[in-house]
Structure formats: structure tokens, C-alpha cells
Write a structure and sequence with these properties.
By secondary structure, the chain is α/β, with parallel strands linked by helices. The protein is built from 17 helices and 13 strands. Helix 2 packs across helix 9, helix 5 packs across helix 7 and helix 10 packs across helix 11. The longest helix is centred in the N-terminal third of the chain and has 21 residues.
Length: 436
Amino acid sequence: MVQFLELAALSDEDRARLLRRAETDIRDLFPLAQGIIDQVRDRGDNAVVEFARRFDAPEFQASMMRATPEDFAAARSAVAPEVVSAIEQAHANIRKFHEEQLPEPMWFTQIQPGIMAGEKITPITSAALYVPRGKGAFPSVMLMLATPARVAGVPRVIVATPPAPNGKADAASLVAAEICGIDEVYVIGGIQAIAALAYGTETVPKVQKIIGPGSSYVTAAKRLLFGVVDVGLPAGPSEAIILTDETVDPRLAALDLLVESEHGPESAAILVTHSREVAEQAAAVLPQYIAELPEWRRNFVENVLDNYGGILLTNSLEESIAFVNEYAPEHLEVLTAEPFVTLQEIHNAGEILLGASTPIPTANYCLGLNAILPTGGFARSFSSVSIWDFLKRSGIGYLSKQGYTALQGITATLADYEGFPAHAMAIRKRNEIFGL
């Protein structure tokens, strides 16, 4: 069943539920996560292996924690040539986009004569990329994380990715890592992986930052380890809004509504339109499209569209846009007569895809945009993964004697006012030394 909702008829409670998506209360997972984190911190590799056996691969051994050169070679042989070629072409587009993001490594501006200020941009020293598995394998996530890390120039980039039941990493993900120039892949996942990366073990190095989407267990671990390590962008269940006016082909809107719906039962997907005709025709064709999906994906879609999305009818395009900005979706498709005009009114979205020829799947894989995006409304204040997740800025200042002279009085006055005598002394006695 697909929900068919009218925005004007929603109660405050129903509207709030729609905006909440399927937000898991991860606080319920904190006791479990803290217990595993403590074990990994105190017992290192032994704890990681123990939890890998419990949750992922019953025969997991410590020797399997890092992918070997032989694993990379076997992966390359196992993946079909057309898949390898697709990964290579997607990598080229993603790399091109992120290279355009690169800032000047250093800049200065003259504030006043003799007063120079600027910034120096440098990469962080180490980063761990978390590439999930669970409901599937995601070489595209590897590309979206590893490419900007490499373009940014991070000296040490490592990957953590959960093992399959046989204890091995996904072959296509290893191929993607190799194409990106990464050979340090740790075949560990879940809470134990985040803890190992935060604290370090005998095998797994401690890193400065962990970035990448994961399950609610991974999210709980990141929340608890915030402050021990930089845990990066908040990325939870997938979500999308398909925004249309009366000019769209309803079949396209219905097709694209399914895209993020099939990611999992906690995803969210909403077709938002003020056209009753579009809404009703999309609703009519959806059952046919859903029936063509494999059963396990079909179950995801049906759950999502019945609980965390569906079709939302508004009274006008302006009302639709206002709802989009309130919702702040991860993915937004703009299927209107003038998408570039509509774009001007969109303020909150992880990514904005314009026109019927720019579907979410292409952006997810190979358009070049980064598809690791803020979810759960965090698009109001967070951006997609980019090279800036792997760079940091240091302010640079320089005063000539002329510049110092111009600012010394201001400095001493404000230091006095704020009650910092050593600050003021550093200026006034410097004036004596300088003979001012």
C-alpha cells in the first residue's frame, strides 16, 4: 500500500511523524555499544575478533582482519570486466568533480597597510573510511569516500568494511579501493570497527577521523566516541523527495519514488506535488512497478511507502517547496517545467537534481557529485562529503611595524576591558622595547 496524504489535512502529529522519518532512538543501543567499545579499548584485536565472530563471520580469525595483496588480486579476477569498467568511469567523474573543489593551498589579503591575514589549507594526517555492507555491498560508497580523501591529499587513508560470512571483504569494494589508490583495508565492521579505529589495536591504527554511513549500531558507536575521534557527517537511512508540478510524466515520478525506498525498511521517500492528476496517475502505476521488483526489495519499498513516505498532495508549488525546505531531504529531484527557476527557492537539501534526465541513481553512482549526504533533516546545517571533510584551515597573520603600531592601542584597550592584564602587558612593554 502507498500512503496518499494531503498536506492541508494532516494533523500536527501526522505532519511531525512524516518529518521525523524512521529516526531510530539510538539511545537504546548505547549500553550495548559502550560495552563493546570498552572491550575493544581494553582488549584490542582479541575483542574485535570475538565480536566479528558473533555478528559477522563465525570462523573469523585475527589473520583475516586486513585484506592481503592476494585478496585484492582475487577480487579483481572475481569482478566482471564491465563492472570494473563502470567503477573506473565513475571514479573518473567523481575525481573530476572533487578536483574542482580544491582551494588555493594558501591565501593572504591586506586588511590595512602593514596588516596581512590569510589561511593555509592542509590535509588531516589520517582518515578511516567506513564502507558498510549489511543489505548489500557498496563499491559506490568506497568511491564517494576514497576519491575526495585522495584528492585532498590525506597521507594515510584506510578503509574499514564488514566481512561477509566467509570472513572476506566485498570483491567490488576492494576493486574500487584499488582504483582509488588505497591498499590498507581492514575487514571489520560495526561497533567494534569504530572502536578499533578510535583507540587503535595491535592491528588497526588509530586515526584522526572516521567518515562514512553505517547502521544504527555504527551511529551509536560514533555518538559515544565523539570527542575521542572526529566522527564526521551524520548519515542515516536513505531518503528522497521527488518534487513535481503538473508538467511531469507521472511514470517518471513513480519510478524515481522507488529508488531510495528500496534501500531498506527505515528509508523515506515522498512524491510531493500540487497536481492531483500527477499524484493519482503516479499512485495508479506504482503497484505495477513495485510488483516487478524482487521480493526482498519489494518488501522494503512497501514498508517505506506505507510508513515513511508515499504521495503528498499540496495546494501549490510554493507550498510544495516550503515543505521540501522544512523536510531538508538527503536527495531532491526537481521535476518542474523550469527546474532552474525552482532551484532558486530550494534552501535545504543534501543534493538537488534538476530535470527528468537527472535521476537519483545516476547521481548515486557516476554523475560526479558526492552521494554521501546528510540525512534526518541535517541538510539544514550539514553538506555532502567533500574534500573539505579531509582538509583543515590554519589562520595566518603578519604585522609589520607599521601594522603593529596601528593596532597596539586597540589591542591594549580591549585587553584592559576584558580583564586580561598579561595581554595588555605584552603590548605595553613591547611598545617600550620597540621604542614606541
